């Protein structure tokens, strides 16, 4: 059974590698993957880790070692996945808004591809006809996800080919004798309601007879993980049961057994990651007690960008009495991690841990204010492994061309 990293280990890592530092707990990633595979034992399911959440190559190698496949959202992610040792057949490239050249490269590399526009599907048909199996990403007109910025299935979304353009898809299928092996729908991130996936399955059910070569139904990612204490995530077991039932219905109606593909990002790595930062400054302005840390939205943008809640713990002073702090970063603009957050008394020098920082934390980081990106550490087999060095000044100059 999985046990979370204790404060002593986190303190030791902060001491050894400095702060701010990202720490990922390998066992937690394995535990999450196992929850999925256990829940879906009765289903012919394949899981593709949506690596946009966290692309560090050592993490990817670890995820590969678990037997998980990988989903990429850019050709560079495909290259990184190959470098991490994934077989091309275990790589999925779910493209959006990309130049056709990237699709050509993906074909040369031999990976699975989901195409998300009629225009690229037409180019694909012209170039490859029936010779390269392909999936298509559909826009279902389903509103789902934690907030509008991470909802991708509604009618005004840029993603996918709208299902009402089915006739145009079918015209291309016929014209180029396309071998469409997969249908893909990803409706958003942080979807708690299992029935959203069932709505997607209903759409697949309607569409399946139009695609004679169909092999897989790809429901995307988007499982919700708990961010707050006592919050519930997506009920994976319930989802698996419902998917099993609907696959049965496909089989009964069409006499075909389909594979179901999923592309979990957050579910696999969010809770496994912590960002540790140190308190630089305490100050009281008006009625607010500010705790200013040596990090900012350049390292974890989710609170500022999505109003996301990240649990914070003070691992240097766990038993002190509780006070309220507005926890801010050191970026030279408003840069708030949390407003009026109750925490055990915070002192300058204390270490604060931001939880659920494994997904879209480091990955969405930047060098804004010419700050360094943090180091990354993978805690695996009871040992901390440095998997990315903290930036240094030379990294900030890299690629710049200095004119006289
Ligand atoms: N598949 C596709 C096609 C996607 O676009 C995404 C995420 C996923 C899978 C994985 O979704 P997940 O299981 O991680 O929810 N930066 C935002 C999340 C953006 C998600 C983008 N697409 C955040 O930090 O909340």
Give short descriptive properties of this protein.
single chain, about 400 residues, alpha/beta, TIM Barrel, Lyase, Ornithine Decarboxylase, Chain A, domain 1, 2 domains, 9-stranded mixed β-sheet, 8-stranded parallel beta barrel, binds ligand LLP
Task: Walk me through this protein's architecture.
- With 404 residues, the chain is of the alpha/beta class.
- Helices cover 30% and strands 24% of the residues.
- Strands 1, 11, 12, 13, 14, 15, 16, 17 and 18 form a 9-stranded mixed sheet that branches.
- Helix 6 runs parallel beside helix 7 (166-176).
- The model has no long low-confidence stretch (mean pLDDT 96).
Number of domains: 2
Per CATH, which architecture of the largest domain? Alpha-Beta Barrel
Bound molecules: ligand LLP
CATH class of the largest domain: Alpha Beta
Number of DSSP strands?
18
- End-to-end Cα distance, whole Å, is 61 Å
Question: Overall pLDDT, averaged?
Answer: 96
Order of helices and strands: HEHEHEHEHEHEEHEHEHEHEEHEEEEEEH
Helix vs. strand class: alpha/beta
Summarize the structure.
The protein has 404 residues and is of the alpha/beta class. Helices cover 30% and strands 24% of the residues.
């Amino acid at each position: 059974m999985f046990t979370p990293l204790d404060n002593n280990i986190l303190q030791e890592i902060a001491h050894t590698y400095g702060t701010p530092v990202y720490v990922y707990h390998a066992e937690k990633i394995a535990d999450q993957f196992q929850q999925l595979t256990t829940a879906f034992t009765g289903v012919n399911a394949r899981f593709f880790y949506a690596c946009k959440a966290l692309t560090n190559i050592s993490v990817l190698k670890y995820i590969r070692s678990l037997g998980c496949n990988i989903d990429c959202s850019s050709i560079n992610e495909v290259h990184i996945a190959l470098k991490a040792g994934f077989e091309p057949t275990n790589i999925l490239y779910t493209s959006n808004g990309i130049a056709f050249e990237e699709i050509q490269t993906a074909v040369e590399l031999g990976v699975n591809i989901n195409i998300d526009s009629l225009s690229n599907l037409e180019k694909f048909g012209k170039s490859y006809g029936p010779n390269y199996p392909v999936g298509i990403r559909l826009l279902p007109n389903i509103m789902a996800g934690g907030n509008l910025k991470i909802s991708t299935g509604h009618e005004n979304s840029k993603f996918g080919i709208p299902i009402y353009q089915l006739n145009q898809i079918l015209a291309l299928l016929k014209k180029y004798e396309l071998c469409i092996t997969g249908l893909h729908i990803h409706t958003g991130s942080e979807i708690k309601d299992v029935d959203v996936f069932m709505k997607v399955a209903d759409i697949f059910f309607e569409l399946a007879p139009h695609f004679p070569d169909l092999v897989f139904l790809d429901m995307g990612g988007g499982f919700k993980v708990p961010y707050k204490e006592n919050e519930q995530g997506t009920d994976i077991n319930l989802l698996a049961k419902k998917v099993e039932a609907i696959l049965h219905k496909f089989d009964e109606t069409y006499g075909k057994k389909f594979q179901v593909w999923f592309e979990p990002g957050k579910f696999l790595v969010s809770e496994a990651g912590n960002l540790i930062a140190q308190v630089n400054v305490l100050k009281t302005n008006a009625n607010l007690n500010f705790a200013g840390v040596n990090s900012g939205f350049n390292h974890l943008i989710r609170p500022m960008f999505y109003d996301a809640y990240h649990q914070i713990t003070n691992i240097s002073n766990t038993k002190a009495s509780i006070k309220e702090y507005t926890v801010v970063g050191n970026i030279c603009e408003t840069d708030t991690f949390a407003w009026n957050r109750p925490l055990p008394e915070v002192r300058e020098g204390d270490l604060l841990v931001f939880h659920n920082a494994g997904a879209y934390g480091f990955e969405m980081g930047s060098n804004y204010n010419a700050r360094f990106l943090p180091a990354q550490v993978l805690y695996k087999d009871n040992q901390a492994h440095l998997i990315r060095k903290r930036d240094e000044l030379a990294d900030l100059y890299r690629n710049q061309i200095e004119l006289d």
